Structure formats: structure tokens, C-alpha cells
């Protein structure tokens, strides 16, 4: 093997052994979405028990935003799409975004 390729091949092999990149799903506060609906979203989409869902909702309400889950890229995308679909169906402006973890 040409020694000039050794580094590249090692890099490729290492990449395959790495854990996947992870992404935070962030929920944003607003003045119109009801507290009840946010708790429902946290339970249905993010599988949070009622008490924890309520705690997270209040934290986002107070601080303006909060990380509600950490997922691979595809799962994070699907979570955001589901939140937005549920919110638009109820005509809430609830915003949910993704950032590198
Ligand atoms: N601020 C909203 C209210 O008082 C509740 C709320 C919490 C909305 C969290 C969005 O991500 C949110 N009705």
C-alpha cells in the first residue's frame, strides 16, 4: 500500500467506529401556546412522564428555551417535524429547533 494513503484509510476506519453525531432538540417559549399543550407534546413526542414534562415546560417558560432531548440527526428532524405538525394543527406558534449537542 502506498504509504501516502495510510493516514486516510486509518481516518476512514476510525470514522466508522465513532459514535454518531448527536443533536439537541430545543423547545422555545412563546406567549400563545398553552402550558397544557406543551406538556402534551413533551409526553407524546419526547416520552416524558407527566411530572417531568411539567417541570421542563415551566423551565422553558421561565428561561426562554430548553433542551428537550438528544438524538441522531434523522430522529431529531422527525421530532421537530412532529412538534410543528401538532402545533400548526392547533394553530399554536410553538417553535422547536435543532443544534449540535
Ligand atoms: N409561555 C406559555 C404560556 O404562558 C407556555 C409555554 C411554555 C409556551 C413553553 C411554549 O415552549 C413553551 N402560555
Number of strands: 3
Strand order of the largest sheet: 2-1-3
Strand content: 15-25%
CATH topology of the domain at 33-101: Ribosomal Protein L30, Chain: A
Proportion in helices? 55-70%
CA-CA gap between termini: 38 Å
Overall residue-averaged pLDDT value: 92
Ligands (ions, cofactors included): L-tyrosinamide
* Overall CATH architecture of the domain at 33-101: 2-Layer Sandwich
Note the run of SSEs as H and E: HEHHEHE
CATH H level of the domain at 33-101: which superfamily?
Answer: Ribosomal protein L7/L12, C-terminal domain/Adaptor protein ClpS
Instruction: Show unreliable segments.
Output: none
**Main sheet characteristics:** 3 strands, antiparallel
CATH class of the domain at 33-101: Alpha Beta
Q: What's the helix count?
A: 4
Q: Give me the Rg, rounded.
A: 19 Å
Structural class: alpha+beta
Shape: elongated
Task: Please render the helix and strand layout as text.
Layout: H1 3-17, E1 23-28, H2 35-44, H3 50-63, E2 65-71, H4 73-89, E3 95-100
Antiparallel strand pairs: 1-2, 1-3
Helix pairs in contact: 2-3
This protein binds L-tyrosinamide.
Question: Notable features of this structure?
Answer:
single chain, Ribosomal Protein L30, Chain: A, three-stranded antiparallel β-sheet, binds L-tyrosinamide
How does this structure look, described?
The protein is α+β, with helices and mostly antiparallel strands and 101 residues long. The chain has a domain at 33-101: Ribosomal Protein L30, Chain: A, CATH 3.30.1390. 55% of the residues lie in helices and 19% in strands. It contains four helices and three strands; from the N terminus they run αβααβαβ. It has a three-stranded antiparallel sheet. Helix 2 (35-44) packs across helix 3. The termini are far apart. The model has no long low-confidence stretch (mean pLDDT 92). Bound molecules: L-tyrosinamide. L-tyrosinamide binds at residues 27-31, 33-35, 38, 57, 60-61, 94.
Amino acid at each position: 500500500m502506498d504509504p501516502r494513503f495510510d493516514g486516510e484509510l486509518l481516518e476512514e476506519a476510525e470514522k466508522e467506529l465513532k459514535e454518531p453525531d448527536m443533536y439537541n432538540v430545543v423547545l422555545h417559549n412563546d406567549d400563545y401556546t398553552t402550558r397544557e399543550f406543551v406538556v402534551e407534546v413533551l409526553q407524546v413526542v419526547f416520552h416524558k412522564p407527566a411530572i417531568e414534562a411539567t417541570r421542563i415546560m415551566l423551565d422553558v417558560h421561565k428561561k426562554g428555551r430548553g433542551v428537550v432531548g438528544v438524538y441522531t440527526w434523522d430522529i431529531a428532524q422527525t421530532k421537530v417535524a412532529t412538534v410543528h405538525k401538532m402545533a400548526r394543527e392547533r394553530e399554536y406558534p410553538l417553535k422547536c429547533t435543532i443544534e449540535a449537542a
